[in-house]
Design brief:
Blueprint lengths: L2 H10 L55 E3 H10 L5 H7 L7 E3 H14 L3 H161 L7 H38 L13 H8 L16 H144 L4 H115 L4 H120 L4 H110 L7 H56 L5 H58 L3 H32 L5 H36 L7 H4 L3 H102 L7
Helix pairs in contact: 1-5, 4-5, 5-8, 5-9, 5-10, 6-7, 6-15, 8-9, 8-10, 9-10, 11-12, 11-14, 11-17, 12-14, 12-17, 13-14, 13-15, 13-17, 14-15, 14-17
Protein name: Ninein isoform X2
Subcellular location: Cytoplasm, Cytoskeleton, Microtubule organizing center, Centrosome
Main location: cytoplasm
Amino acid sequence: MNVQEFVSRVVTHNKPPTPSASTPYRQLKRHHSTQPFDEGGRRIATPSALSSTIGTRLFSTLDDGSGFTLVEYILDAWVEEGIENSTEILQALNFNLDGKLSLSDLTMALENELLITKNGIHQAALASFKAEIRHLLERVDRELREKEKIRSDLEKVEKQKTQLATEVDEHHSAIEQMNNLNLRKLEQEHKEKLAAVRSELMKEMDQIQQQASVQREELEAEMQKIREDESFLRDHLSISVKENRRLEMELLDSTEKLEEAQNQITKLQTSLDNIIKERFGDLDPGSADLFLQEERIKQLRSSYEAQCRELQDRIDELQSELQEFHGLGRVLQPCHKTLSEELESKSPGMESDPGIGSDEVQPFSMSLEAEMMLEQLKEQHLQEMEDLRNQLETKINEFDKMVEKQKASHEDQKVTIVLHHQQEAQALREEMATLQIQTQELQNRLQQVDVERTRLEQTQVEETKKLQNLQEKEVETFRQQLQEAQTCREDLEEQLKNLRGQQVENDENFSREMEELKKQHAVQIRRLEEEHVELSEGQLEEEKQKLQEERSELEKRLFESSEKEKELLQQSHEEELKVRLEEVKESMEAEREEVVRSLTEQWKRERAQLDEQNNDALQVLLEEEMMRLVKEQEEKEGRLREIWEQERAQLQEHQEKALLHERNQVQEQFEQRERQLKKEWESERLQLVEDYEGMLQERLSEEKEKFDGEKEEEEKRFEALMGEEKVQLEERHREAVKELTAKHTQERDALSGMLDKLREDIVQERSETGRLAEENLALRQKIAALKEEDLKESQEELIQKLEFLKKGKVAAQRAAENFKKQITELRLQSQQLEDQNGLLTERNAQNIADIENLRQQLEEVMKDDERTEGFSAERNKLAACVSGLETELTKALEDAAQLEERNSQLSELLSDLKEKNHVLEVALHSGGLQNQSKKLLREEVSRLVEQEQLLLREENERLQAEVQEVKGDLLQSREQIRQLDATILSLKQNKQQTQSSVLLKALEQENASLKQELEAQKELNKSCEAGPGHAEVESLQQENEALKAQMARLSSHLMENFQAHLVGLLPPSPHRMPRGQHRAEDQDNVQDDRERKMKIMEERMKEIELSLHNVKLLLKEKVAQLKDQLHKNGKADVLIKDLYMENAQLLRALEVTDKRQKIAEKKNYLLEEKISSLNRIVRDLNPSLPYY
């Protein structure tokens, strides 16, 4: 009975009914078990059942090599064969449905069931045997087909070898052509890049020349301004010297006039004494001549008083002219009392005689009083003459001192001018030294470039060596793989031959055993052949692809390395050129700024010194010596102006000539410097271009030679490898045939040992996998070591950069701390100025209180009956108070000027800080920031700056509008003052006490209001000094001073009229009473009219006071608004500064991060290339699994 008969019987056999006792029939649905594997539920056959075992094992297709399989697979096989109660069959055989079961146990159980009973179990056993036999027949047919495939594959392999040889030759020729094309392209690209670099260099040189011309023009304009200022100062000096000489001449004239006046006074005194003795010695005390003498004395007194008034008016006019003369911003510092105060305190005519107007005085007492008064007048005149002499002597001494001081100052100015010229020459020498240093630095940089070039060449040589080593390693790996493939192929061929011979010899004797062995051996052969075919075909194709890929990669690497080196060299060259240009620009700008700063500082110092000296000298001279010389001064002022203009024109011409000469010298030096720099630059550029071209040509030639030699060596190596591999394959084939015969005898003797060998093979494979893992670890460690070296280098570079950045950061922090210190000092100074303003306001309040007290005292004095006794003392007090108020006003104006100077200094500091921030932004912009984040930051900064500028412009416009409103208010106040002038002129005609008291009140109120207006305008000056209305505020100050002078004149006129009115209101003598009785009624009528007029004037004065009060309130409100606006502007400036600082820091940080990012990207790119190459090497080094 053969296999086919057995299969046919099994197929035609009918299925018996399912057993009822052994396996109860239940239609169960198949379910998948999820429980873990458990071997405890497996049935163990008895020894009686195991006696009739078959040599084969069922379900070998489901075996995974361990002798066990899942229950589900067996159930699926039975279901496919038509057995429905498969789960019941397994349960009846005492097998667990969960996990795996043993195939050997299942075969034994089925055999036992076949021997014992005939039921569904038999059918299951038959179905399983049928499937196993079918599977074995298919495997035999498959093995026969695979043998024929192996023969055809061997023929294909030989054909592929020939094709490989032809393809390799073609590939080498294509590589040579590609290399030639690439070299030509590189040469063309290099030429184009050189042309582009040259054009860029020419453009940069043109830009530098344009910038130098612009800077030269700016310096010339600044030098022109400085020369004009110096000429103006020299003119001013010459004018002051001439003014001193004129004043000395006027002093001599005044001394002569004083001596003549003293002689006249002595003559008058002697004549008066004689006249008194002649006329009043024999007269009775009650005679009419005595009354006439009293009238003459009164007339003399009135004449003296008129002279004093005229002198005081003239003094006031001179003071107003002095203020106009110093209208260019100079502030007077009155340290002494005015001449009017001295005359008022010393003049005897201002004192009233208390006893002249009384009715009860007797004639004898009146004559004695007249004699006493004459004696007092003599003594006072003598004292005044002595005082005048002393004053003249002191003034002459002071004039001598002033002349000496001016001579010394003139000599100092000469010395300073000489020193200034010496400093300029020294600065030019220093500039030449700096240029020489810069040339040395450029030479050092060129040397550094040469060193870097040599270093790059060395790195390139090392990289080529590394590539050669890698190529050699890869070729060795290919050889090994080819050898292994050939050995495998020879082994398989030998095995096939041996198997054929053994089959022919052992068919007759061992038919059954040979069938089983054939089946097992055919399965193994099929597996091995499939593996071998797959390995051989895959390895051949992989080797072809690898060879092609390696050659293409090598070509690409060489091409990319050459391109990278070229790009790196070009970038380094361009960066060095840019750095040099930027350094030259920065050095030129720094030198220009230093020269401009030094010149401006010297000019400011000299101007301040000259202004102080001239102000002090002119102030002292004009205050003390222009009292009695008004008429002559008006004539001489015109002459002085003409002389001043002539001398100024001469000095301007002289200064312009000197400055033109200096400017030409500086321009010639600058042009020579530029020529030298251009020559040096062109020579260096040509040298660099020549060196770079020669270096590239040398590298190209070297690379060509290396590539040709490598190509020839690779061809020779490949041919030698092919011959060696053929010999080795033949030898291995023979050895494999011998080994297969020995193995076949061993397998036939011991089939049971296959499992052990398979396990050993698994262990060996695991060991090989471990070895490969170790090799991979070693390669990874090498890669890590390479990465660590690269990272160390990058870390060292980063550390150096961080140290450099830290140094820059420390310097920036120091600069920021200095700026903060300056800002704190400025804030402290502004706080001190505010405190001083507060003190001044308190003093002004005290002065206002004093004025009110004086007003009350005047009212009390005017109510008293004895008005004439204390009137002179009160008037002196009032004059002293007015003078004190004037001094305080001048001090307030001085403080305002100081505040203006401090605020101007603060604004200059702010502008300097803004300029520094602008310079930093320009430097950052020139550095070439290209990231989108930087652009966004710049746009935000520009937007913020524009917003701040718009706000400042709006605030300035608003301030201008407010200034215009203040102007309107001042115009209203001027109109009111004109109305007051009109009222004062009308009041001059009235000569009553009530009129004088009201006028005094009005004048005091007006003085207080003017004082408050001056304070308000002082605050306006503080608020408006940053805006365009500063000049308008100064004009308003001058107008207020003119108004003050007018009020002083009006007050003096009113005092004169009031004194004259008092003299007229004295009660008449009894001798004159009869002559004035017929006028009493007319005087009563006139008195009524005057009282009506006084009431009307009082009402008008009240209205004027109300209007002035309203104007003051408006001014206070506007001053408060301006203060608030100033506070807001200060905050806005602080915010803008902070923004500028933050933006500068952000831009620096962005630059640093960009640089780091670029460096990291380059390093990552290089590391990725290295890793990819190492991965390829590792992949190539992984050998194929060995055959067992």
